[in-house]
Each structure stands twice: as C-alpha cells, then as structure tokens.
Automatic annotation (TrEMBL):
This is Branched-chain amino acid ABC transporter permease. Keywords: Cell membrane, Membrane, Transmembrane, Transmembrane helix. It is a multi-pass membrane protein. It comes from the Bacteria.
Amino acid sequence: MNALNNPALTYRVQRTTTSSRVGLTLLGLCVLVLISAPWWADRASLRLVVEFAYYLALAQMWNLLAGYAGMVSVGQQAFVGLGGYLLFMLSTQLGMPPLFAVVLSGVLVALLAIPTALIVFRLRGAYFAIGTWVVAEVFRLGLAQVSSLGGGSGQSLPAAIVRQIGNDRDGREMLIYFTALAIAIGAVAVVFFLLRSRQGLALASIRDSEPASGSLGVNTFRTKLMVYVLAAGCTGVVGALIFLQKLRISPEAAFNLQDWTAVVIFIVIIGGIGTLEGPLIGTLIYFVLRGCLAQYGAVYMIILGVVAVVMMLKAPQGVWGLISERLGWQVFPMQRRLSIQSKP
C-alpha cells in the first residue's frame, strides 16, 4: 500500500531540522553576546563588529541578487555611494536627524534603482555585469561635479550634525554600533522571509531557468525588479551607515569597487553563493584572513585572489555548501519536509 494512502499514518510538513534548531539557538546566543558587548568590549572591538555587520549586510544583498535571482552585479558600489551622499545631503542641507536620514537614504536609493534597473535589465550575462559597473562610474563622476557636496575632494559632516548623533564619542559609537547590528540582523531576516515566501519560489525557478519559469507563469521581470530594488535600498541604508561612522565622504571612497563590491563578491563565493549561511561564513573567513595577512600589503590581495580561484575550482559551492553537502547541516531552513508518523 502506498504510504501516503495509509490511514494508520499521520503526516506533517515541517521545515526545521535538528541542525537548524541548534544553529538558530547558537546564533541567538551570539546576538545576545554582541548586544552586551558595549559594556565589556574595547572600542577597537566594537568598531570591528560594526564593520563585520555592514559587510555581512552587503554580502546578503549581493547574494540575493546573484545567488537567487541570477543577476551578477559588479556595480553595487553605486548604491553604497548614493546612500552615503544622500545621508550627507539630507542631514547637512535639509537638517534631518542623522539616523532618520540613514533610513530615508535607503528609500531614496530604492527609488533611484527603478530607472537604473530599466536600463541595465536590457543587458544579459557579462553585459549586465559590465553595465552595472558603468552605471556606478556614471554616479561617481556625476557627484564629483557637485560642488555643494564637496566635488572631487568630498566633505566631512559638520560638528553640529555629529553632536546630533550623540553628546560624546562613546554615545555616538554605541548608537552606531546598535544601528549596525540591527541592519545586519534585518538584512538576514529580509532575505530569509523573502525566500520562504511565494516570491522565493519564483526566484528559485528564475535562477534554475528563466525561460522555463516564464512559461510556468512567473512574471520574471517584476520579480527581478523587486529583488533589484530591494537589494539597492538595503545597500543604500548600509552605505549611509558606513559614512555616518566615517564622518567623511568622497567620490573615490563612496564608489570604491574594491571595498564595496570586490570584497563582497569574495565573501559570498568563499562562504557559499545561493545560501543564507554562506555570507555569514564568508564574512568570518574574510575578517580572519584580513587580520592575519593585511600587514603584507599587496601580497594580501594576491592571496585573497588565489583563495577565491582555488575555491571556485575545487569547491564552487563554497565552504558552507561543502559542509551542507557532506553533513546535511543547515541553519536557516528553506525546504519543506514531509514527516510521516504512526498514529498512536
């Protein structure tokens, strides 16, 4: 008799597994430790956590684009830079509170991403990747001509704006720390719940075969546009936070390909593209390698490149993909599993 037709059995669809429950519990404990860090950690450690948080958020957004929607962008620095410049514009010229300006910068970047998408979506494959980089360069060159924003040399946040963040240095750094932590957790949560929704199923079908997904009724253009705009908006929020912490912005720093796109691509490839856990593992690996090798200057970048190439050749699924394949572990459950039990 077919097990599904057996009246002596009960069926339940579940997503969580033992590994996911353990993993989420450990992550929750890590978050609690990080929340308590300002009361026991030194200033350098807190700044490192802030940097880790915004790289994790950037990696999640790029992974959403490339790993789930199949849009390999090398121009995400466009949205980092736009977020940073909008923060400066809103706070210095319109007098908005800095933290409110961080959120509004993300909204405005998302709106700017819509006409940008209408241009780059005409391109496919490598042409799409090059097109996103060209758009980022256009934004960089354009903002370098705006004298009210410092032109090519950039500008610093006025002291009056800095005091709005906090009355003293410790207060400012604590506020930025908790904001960075919230943004990183929010980025992971946004991707997690998106992938568990109907849009997540549409993204999976587009990634596997865009023509086939279209023939099954998936509106590929609308789904990809939604993901592109969402990733741009979240990246813009991160960009605003980055330059709120730095207190200074310039076109070269804001639209830096190496800092805001190349490093992020490395993180996702090493950790595992197309997985939620991959960017987290990749960010940890990147910070460990940077801490150990940064003193060697140019050799450091060569070693990172060699590590990335070897990983793509030997384990293209990344570190977490390799672990998941060998051991079956997962932290963020995505798949539905049918659990069959006997009736008492």
